[in-house]
Design a protein that fits this description.
Radius of gyration: 25 Å
Shape: elongated
Helix content: 25-40%
Order of helices and strands: EHEEHEEHHEHHEEHEEHEHEEH
Number of domains: 2
Structural class: alpha+beta
Distance between the termini: 70 Å
Number of strands: 13
CATH architecture of the largest domain: 2-Layer Sandwich
Bound molecules: flavin mononucleotide
Number of helices: 10
Length: 347
């Protein structure tokens, strides 16, 4: 037996009779499938609980998630195993809490409103990968760790320490938040997973099939940060928005890492350290993107890559061949970084 409770948002404004029509259809279908539950409509949102055999609920929830009549389907709770039906007599009971006037509806409305608000807050603090797992009706805590190949991206603000010394606290926070907003949006839009913010550094990963998107994300971030700098005034904190990237590929362990107090769904492994080290090499190489040999084999597109030679990364036994992409957006790094290093590069 399995039970899933979710909320979602209709794609278009819906009248009571529109929702009534959906529920009538559900009622018939659910009766055939021995699925029971309740569909609430409140404040322009659907709240639904569906329960039945594990196989039928998985199938139905997959269909419901794909249904174009609603979006932002967010699984609130998933129960399975030895559970009893909560709504054994309702093939799909429809209740419109907006039009219901009974006294009892009021506390239910208050409760649902607070669930919506707390989920919106928690959603912002939760990793997209974890939300994705929850939205498939699965419990992320039950997912065992696995070994997978990933392209790892590290993006780090250049001169952040200097900026935070010069800027006011609020300016520093504004600048950092703008950086994190821009990077996470671009990475997520291209199918990457932002797994951690480590101070002024963003750690993300892509599947090897998305290697081109990983590099594309770096280029789009460079472009977006350049636009921010160009429109920033001489005293704006946004003039500090400039970043270096390290891209590496390798086998990592993906899964839950943490304690009872805090758990991250993240990746660990040698390739993660390599990406971080490559990012710090950007200063020496004088280019904003530095990547390793392995990722070259995953590229489907014909990127122009320039070899910097075999470099010894800190903490690594073997030297690895390191590259930077030749691209119109890759030109203005040396002047931005520590002048001592740009001097070294000029030599
Ligand atoms: C808010 C909402 C709730 C739904 N609930 C159910 C449901 O309980 N049972 C069901 O069979 N379909 C439900 N649907 C419809 C499914 O998304 C999907 O259209 C339907 O299962 C298609 O069935 P078919 O592929 O067998 O024709 C719901 C759709 C929406 C938008």
């Amino acid at each position: 037996m399995k039970r899933i409770t979710y909320i979602s948002r209709p794609c278009q404004a819906m009248s009571d009779s529109d929702v009534q029509a959906i529920s009538t259809y559900c009622y018939e279908k659910n009766r055939e499938q021995q699925v029971t539950g309740v569909l609430l409509f409140f404040c322009g949102l659907f709240f639904q609980t569906i329960e039945g055999s594990e196989e039928k609920i998985n199938l139905l929830f997959a269909k419901i998630r794909q249904d174009k009549r609603h979006r932002d389907v967010l699984c609130l709770k998933m129960e399975s195993g030895n559970i009893v039906r909560m709504f054994p007599d309702w093939s799909m009971k429809y209740i419109n809490l907006d039009t219901g006037v009974e006294d009892l509806n009021r506390p239910v409305r208050v409760l649902l409103q607070s669930i919506i608000e707390s989920h919106q807050i928690i959603g912002r603090y939760t990793q997209p990968a974890v939300l994705h797992i929850i939205n498939q009706g699965l419990n992320p805590l039950n997912i065992p760790p696995r070994k997978v190949e990933r392209v790892i991206l590290f993006a780090d603000l250049v001169n952040f320490s200097l900026a935070s010394e010069i800027l006011e606290v609020e300016e520093t926070a504004d600048m950092l938040n703008r950086f994190l907003e821009i990077t996470s949006k671009i990475i997520s839009d291209l199918g990457g997973e932002v797994t951690k913010f480590i101070g002024d550094c963003v750690m993300a990963y892509f599947s090897p099939e998305q290697a081109d998107n990983a590099l594309r994300a770096c280029l789009l971030i460079i472009q977006a940060l350049r636009q921010q700098r160009e429109k920033a005034g001489a005293s704006s904190p946004m003039r500090f928005l400039r970043c270096g990237f390290g891209l590496a590929q390798g086998m990592v362990i993906e899964g839950n890492m943490g304690s009872q107090v805090k758990t991250d769904y993240t990746i660990i492994g040698d390739a993660v350290n390599t990406a971080a080290r490559l990012e710090s090499m950007t200063r020496e190489v004088g280019k904003p993107i530095v990547l390793c040999e392995k990722i070259r084999q995953s590229f489907g597109e014909d990127w122009k890559l320039v070899s910097v030679g075999r470099l010894q990364l800190k903490g690594k036994e073997k030297a690895i061949e390191v590259f930077y992409p030749q691209h119109e957006l890759i030109d203005d790094f040396a002047e931005a970084i520590n002048p001592r290093i740009s001097q070294i590069i000029a030599d």
